Amino acid sequence: MSINFDFSALKERATNLAQAGVASTKKAAAVAKLKSDNMAQKDALRKAYIAIGKAYYAAHKGNPEEGLEEAFAKADAAIAAIAANNATLEELRAKDEFTVDVADDDIDVDIEIEIPVDPEAPEAPEAPEVPEAPEAPEAPEVPEAPEAPDAPIE
Predict the structure, then answer these.
(1) Does residue 100 lie within any of the structural domains?
(2) Do residues 51 and 4 share a domain?
(3) Is the pLDDT of residue 115 over 80?
(4) Is there a domain that residue 16 lies in?
(5) Same domain, yes or no: 41 and 75
(6) Within this chain, do residues 17 and 48 fall inside the same structural domain, yes or no?
(7) Is 97 within the bounds of a domain?
(8) Cα Dmax for the chain
(9) Which domain holds residue 108?
(10) Residue 56, helix vs strand vs coil
């Protein structure tokens, strides 16, 4: 019994599969590029909205339009809180010691912490040098597989 095999049909099918794979890869790359571009555009839009909001807030700070009073009040409160926090930070940085008051119901605790500042304190020692890892040994050579005989398939 003899089997005739048409290699040209197999070659054509392999070529078609390869072309489909290339087309699929190109499509995936195009989708990824468009998604990346959309993310960049959304970031640009977000930045533009922020700039518009800042400009609008600055222009209407004293006289917000109807319906925006609450948003302006929240912004004003946040700005005031940031200013207060920055003032407290500056005070803490200026002192060598500070007091922390902790209150929980009827319990009052005063904690004083002194932070000494010694300009002549020695520097930390350098970290010891770590030796490099040895190179990995080469992989042994793999023998090639023997060739198949050219006998016809029966």
Answers:
(1) yes
(2) yes
(3) no
(4) yes
(5) no
(6) yes
(7) yes
(8) 101
(9) 70-116
(10) helix
Residues 47 and 5 in one domain: yes
Which helix (H) or strand (E) is 29 found in, with range? helix 7-60
Domain count, the chain: 2
For residue 50, what are its two tokens?
């922020």
Same domain for 74 and 47? Answer: no
Q: Please give the backbone phi and psi of residue 107, each rounded to the nearest 5 degrees, phi first.
A: -100, 125
Q: What confidence tier does 5 reach under pLDDT thresholds 50, 70, 90?
A: confident
Contact 114, 95 (CB under 8 A): no
Q: How would residue 132 be classed by pLDDT, with cut points 50, 70 and 90?
A: confident
- Ramachandran area for residue 61 (φ above 0: left; ψ -120 to 50: alpha; else beta): alpha
Predicted local distance difference test score (pLDDT) of residue 135? 74
| Paired tokens of 84 | 């207060």
pLDDT band with cut points at 50, 70 and 90 for residue 125:
low
Asked whether 75 and 53 are in contact (CB, 8 A), the reply is no
Which residues in the chain belong to E strands, given as ranges?
Answer: 97-104, 107-114
pTM of the prediction?
Answer: 0.43
The reply to whether 95 falls in a domain is yes
105 dihedral zone (left: phi>0; alpha: psi -120 to 50; beta) = left
User: What are the C-alpha distances in Å from 53 to residues 57, 61, 80, 92?
Assistant: 6, 11, 18, 33
